[in-house]
Specification:
mainly alpha; globular
């Protein structure tokens, strides 16, 4: 996925669209995460991003950026279909890495701890 497409995807959107993304991410993130967590090397970071994006203390712009990346992750038909195991997540990783580069200072130890707990729950 080229850089301009990623930048466009992560641009701020109107509040209504951001709320729509949040609703979709809250409803669809965990089922997809559970299905693919064992196959994606960035699963713990992805879960930490989810907790950061749904944390009301996280600044709105940061939440919006993460919600865009998480919404892309849960899309059933993205540029490289996810059912192609690791290769299918290469575009998701590109979008996610760009988003995390922008907002990583806002992903707290608390978010990461919740992610570790979720990973432990999912793998046991």
């Amino acid at each position: 996925m080229d850089k301009s497409k990623i930048e466009k995807l992560l641009l701020p959107v109107p509040l209504a669209k951001s709320r729509s993304r949040e609703k979709k991410v809250r409803a669809q993130f965990w089922p997809k995460f559970r299905a693919f967590a064992a196959h994606i090397p960035f699963a713990e970071d992805l879960a930490a991003a989810y907790y950061c994006a749904t944390d009301k203390k996280t600044p709105l712009k940061v939440r919006g950026t993460l919600l865009a990346a998480l919404a892309y992750f849960i899309l059933p038909a993205d540029i490289v279909p996810d059912f192609f195991a690791v290769v299918g997540f290469s575009d998701d990783l590109a979008v996610f890495t760009a988003a995390m580069t922008l907002v990583q200072a806002h992903v707290t130890d608390e978010h990461r701890e919740k992610a570790r707990q979720a990973m432990d729950t999912e793998t046991n």
